[in-house]
């Protein structure tokens, strides 16, 4: 059978001339992906870090089915609905501090765009002009739309070719040493009057290479942003909902950002939904008798009721099932299982945080070959750059997790050259 998509689909991050044909998935269940040819793969990455409860969780499916029967979608301008009201209230209760004001959108990149726009308009609403730039961190990734691209790592990031077309931002290293703290402070002092906000991925820079930093570093970022009067945007799109071992990564540093972005696992990996959440102080700068002071944003499908129903059901599961303990147990198993790779020639680093395990090569092998070998072993693991990583569903069964870890240890061991 010819594959019709070969002619019509333009695939993500894919060189369409040379890429191998994608595998066709027909079914998912728990931590498994079933392919059209009958093969069953253990998923090591939970569909780009979304499927926190595994695939097809019956509670989420039932919630979405009930919502589908009642009201799949309704515009959010001038109308509201219970699934969104309930979800916003629950997020506000779960998030640290007074992150109480929830703006829904439909993807992580758009949640970041909204956060950047909120920060820009916050200054305009205060009557301050000239604050048009953002301080972001090297190694960071915040999405694929233009504003989000502009705050990704400008040199090593995947969007580096677009530099000339993007707004120019200010980049610093995360303050992981005394010198870097001083450098960040100097940078803030130098650019103080042109900056609108600081944006950071708390505890892990995900797509930039699973680079982890301790909570103290995040606390230092928050302290410095605050001391310069700058709003802090925490991009928890990857880290939110248990991935780092706490519900939100910011909790580990005891910080409350001014604006926080969520997506990915928000709906337990079932539907597209994102949220940009602001503190009371940020929200209040938008309250005015002047209509122009309102946040001028409104995606057509914002607060989609099906997605909100899925997210509410996902939060039920975080309440009723031991997800955070499961994340920490996965972390312990990843740390023990991946340890044999540590210190091997050709391996630069092995690191684990929460339910994230990453192995970094110093000598990168042929990644197409690495992917082929993972498939042979019946696992879905997607190395990128100099990294191979595991971010499985938090509900993954121990034998499946062991199979993923064994595959990584064996395949990486076999393909790595000193
Ligand atoms: C930290 C972070 N921010 C933003 C995004 C963009 O999200 P989306 O792909 O839903 O646009 C991602 C996606 O990987 C991410 O990891």
Automatic annotation (TrEMBL):
It comes from Methylobacterium adhaesivum. The modification N6-(pyridoxal phosphate)lysine is found at residue 264. The record marks 13 as: Participates in the substrate recognition with KAPA and in a stacking interaction with the adenine ring of SAM. It comes from the Bacteria. Catalyzes the transfer of the alpha-amino group from S-adenosyl-L-methionine (SAM) to 7-keto-8-aminopelargonic acid (KAPA) to form 7,8-diaminopelargonic acid (DAPA). It is the only aminotransferase known to utilize SAM as an amino donor. Pyridoxal 5'-phosphate binds at residues 108-109, 235, 299-300. This is Adenosylmethionine-8-amino-7-oxononanoate aminotransferase. Keywords: Aminotransferase, Biotin biosynthesis, Cytoplasm, Pyridoxal phosphate, S-adenosyl-L-methionine, Transferase. Its main location: cytoplasm.
């Amino acid at each position: 059978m010819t594959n019709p998509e070969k002619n019509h689909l333009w695939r993500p991050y894919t060189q369409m001339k040379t890429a191998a044909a994608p595998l066709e998935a027909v079914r998912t269940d728990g931590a498994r992906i079933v392919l059209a040819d009958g093969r069953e793969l253990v998923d090591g990455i939970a569909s780009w870090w979304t499927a926190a409860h595994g695939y097809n969780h019956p509670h989420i499916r039932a919630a979405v089915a009930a919502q589908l029967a009642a009201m799949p979608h309704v515009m959010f301008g001038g109308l509201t609905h219970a699934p969104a009201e309930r979800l916003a209230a629950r997020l506000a209760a779960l998030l640290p501090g007074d992150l109480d004001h929830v703006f829904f959108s439909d993807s992580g990149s758009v949640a970041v765009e909204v956060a950047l726009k909120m920060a820009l308009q916050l200054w305009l609403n205060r009557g301050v002009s000239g604050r048009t730039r953002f301080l972001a961190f090297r190694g960071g990734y915040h999405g694929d739309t233009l504003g989000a691209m502009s705050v990704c790592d400008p040199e090593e990031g995947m969007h580096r070719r677009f530099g000339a077309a993007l707004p120019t931002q200010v980049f610093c290293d995360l303050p992981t040493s005394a010198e870097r703290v001083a450098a960040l402070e100097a940078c803030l002092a130098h650019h103080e009057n042109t900056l609108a906000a600081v944006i950071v991925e708390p505890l892990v820079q995900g797509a930039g290479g699973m680079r982890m930093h301790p909570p103290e570093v995040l606390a230092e970022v928050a302290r410095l942003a605050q001391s310069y009067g700058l709003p802090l945007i925490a991009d928890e799109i990857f880290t939110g909902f248990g991935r780092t071992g706490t519900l939100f990564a910011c909790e580990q540093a005891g910080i409350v950002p001014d604006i926080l972005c969520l997506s990915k696992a928000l709906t337990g990996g079932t539907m597209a939904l994102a949220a940009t959440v602001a503190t009371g102080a940020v929200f209040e700068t938008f309250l005015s008798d002047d209509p122009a002071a309102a946040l001028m944003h409104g995606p057509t499908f914002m607060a989609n009721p099906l997605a909100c129903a899925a997210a509410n059901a996902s939060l039920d599961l975080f309440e009723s099932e031991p997800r955070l303990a499961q994340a920490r147990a996965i972390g312990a198993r990843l740390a023990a299982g991946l340890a044999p790779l540590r210190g091997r020639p050709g391996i630069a680093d092995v690191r684990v945080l929460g339910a994230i395990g990453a192995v970094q090569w110093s000598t990168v092998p042929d990644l197409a070959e690495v992917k082929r070998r993972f498939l042979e072993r019946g696992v879905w693991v997607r190395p990128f750059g100099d990294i191979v990583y595991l971010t499985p569903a938090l509900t993954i069964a121990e034998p499946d997790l062991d199979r993923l870890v064994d595959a990584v240890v064996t395949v990486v061991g076999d393909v790595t050259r000193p």
